[in-house]
Design goal:
Helix 8 links the parallel strand 7 and strand 8. The N and C termini lie far apart (49 Å). The strands form three sheets. A five-stranded mixed beta sheet has the order 5-6-1-7-8. A four-stranded antiparallel beta sheet has the order 9-12-10-11, with helices on one face. The protein is built from 17 helices and twelve strands. The protein is 39% helix and 20% strand. With 417 residues, it is an alpha+beta fold. The structure holds magnesium ion (MG). The site of magnesium ion (MG) has 5 residues, from strand 1.
Length: 417
């Protein structure tokens, strides 16, 4: 590792002191993250018990689609969500491929969310099958957070016939990592003060918002576990990875101060990206826009929401910032539509003439996307050539930032609008 950035390396024991007074430990939050196990696939098995123990793959109505969920048996064949169905069929020729039945999943989702809300009003759904609960104030009524998690698991099983995994911790970051620790039907508790110990041995890919490219650079520095990151100074991490370096520094220590935002306060869903190098060429700008669009569309669909107003934010290299927005006739969560509208909003900016430092897309004026289908650029694009261009564009971007470049839960909350 000394070959890389030797002058910045800080030896263990000389770690920069974190100058924040509002760490999760001091706030003593009690957060539970609940995540249904192989949700869509489990619902299919619930409704057709003869599928139990078989490799069930949801999302396979056509070869053009991607896998939405795979049962644990299917996962043994290397099948995972977001994998093209064609690939899944090659990996698991005996798999049972089923179409997505969104309305059924939504029905069960509202039942589990209702169970969650009997323990706290602070429920933040991340997708149909996943939510954060802030139970800090509920403990007086229902007992310790761990007991609440146990009770919720029991009730979900009893009332829906499905299993849910839970993580209990003092922050969203830790609770989410914990819920994934013993899937399926797991319950993992990270006691306060044990955050850094809990994370130390885990591989870096378990942290949110750390892309492949970053992981590769870290692994070249012989940094492979989350604990290894804590040996690097903030100065080194930010010089190597920019803003993401700061995230790495804090997250590796288990520090995450984000609060649980109950669903009703979500006014918009968006994402923005600041670029290390200003974007000059229109082609490049559109590629980045496409990347943002697919992320925002996916997030909306995960929430079962659609938005009517699309807002584009552009910051130029002189830090001057503009927004352009448009309200559609009907709400959408279709990547193509969002992308198309974003491109026409882009024409109302000076992008392409002036270097662009930041791009952002958000959808507001949200409604429940009840008529939702699994719409995405990848599934719906008709012409082969166009589609491969899109793949190429997204792949290029994906390689640069990594598929998880977007932190789960990145919501742009707009107050007073
Ligand atoms: Mg799940």
């Amino acid at each position: 590792m000394s070959d890389f950035f030797p002058s910045f390396f800080i030896a263990p024991g000389h770690i920069v002191k974190i100058m924040t007074s509002n760490t999760p430990q001091t706030r003593d939050q009690k957060i539970i993250h609940l995540d249904m196990d192989a949700f869509y696939a489990s619902v299919e098995i619930l409704d057709n018990p003869s599928l139990a123990g078989k490799p069930v793959i949801v999302g396979g109505s056509s070869n053009r689609g991607v896998v939405s969920a795979a049962s644990y048996e299917a996962r043994k064949y290397g099948v995972h969500s977001a994998m093209p169905v064609v690939t899944a069929k090659k990996q698991c020729p005996n798999g049972i491929f089923l179409p997505v039945r969104m309305s059924r999943y939504k029905e069960i989702s509202s039942r589990i969310m209702a169970i969650f809300r009997t323990y706290t009003p602070l429920v933040e759904p991340i997708s149909l099958d996943e939510a954060f609960l802030d139970v800090t104030d509920s403990t007086k009524l229902f007992g310790p957070a761990e007991e609440i998690a146990k009770e919720i698991k029991m009730r979900v099983q009893k009332e829906t016939g499905l299993t849910v995994s839970a993580g209990v911790a003092a922050s969203k970051l830790l609770a989410k990592i914990a819920s994934d620790q013993e899937k399926p039907d797991g319950l993992t508790v990270v006691p306060p003060g044990q955050e850094q110990n809990f994370l130390a041995a885990l591989p870096i890919k378990r942290l949110w918002g750390v892309g492949k490219a970053t992981r590769k650079s870290l692994s070249l520095m012989n940094i492979n576990t989350i604990g290894d990151i804590t040996n690097l100074s903030m100065a080194l991490l930010t010089s190597a990875f920019g803003k993401q370096g700061e995230h790495l520094f804090l997250a590796s220590r288990g520090i995450d101060e984000r609060e649980v935002i109950p669903e009703r306060t979500i006014k918009s869903v968006g994402h923005e990206e600041t670029f290390a190098i200003d974007l000059v060429k229109m082609k490049k700008i559109k590629k980045e826009l496409l990347f943002l669009t697919t992320k925002v569309g996916k997030r909306l669909r995960n929430y079962g929401m659609a938005g009517k107003t699309i807002t584009l934010k552009v910051k130029y290299n002189d830090f001057k910032q503009i927004t352009r927005s448009r309200t559609l006739a009907s709400a959408t969560n279709d990547d193509r539509k969002i992308f198309h509208e974003s491109c026409s909003l882009l024409e109302r900016s000076e992008a392409g003439k002036r270097p662009v430092r930041l791009l952002g897309i958000s959808l507001s004026n949200l409604t429940e996307g009840t008529e939702m289908r699994q719409i995405s650029l990848f599934e719906e694009e008709k012409t082969g050539r166009k589609r491969s261009e899109l793949y190429e564009a997204v792949d290029t971007i994906g390689n640069r930032f990594g598929p998880e470049a977007i932190k789960p839960g990145t919501l742009i909350e707009k107050k007073g609008e």
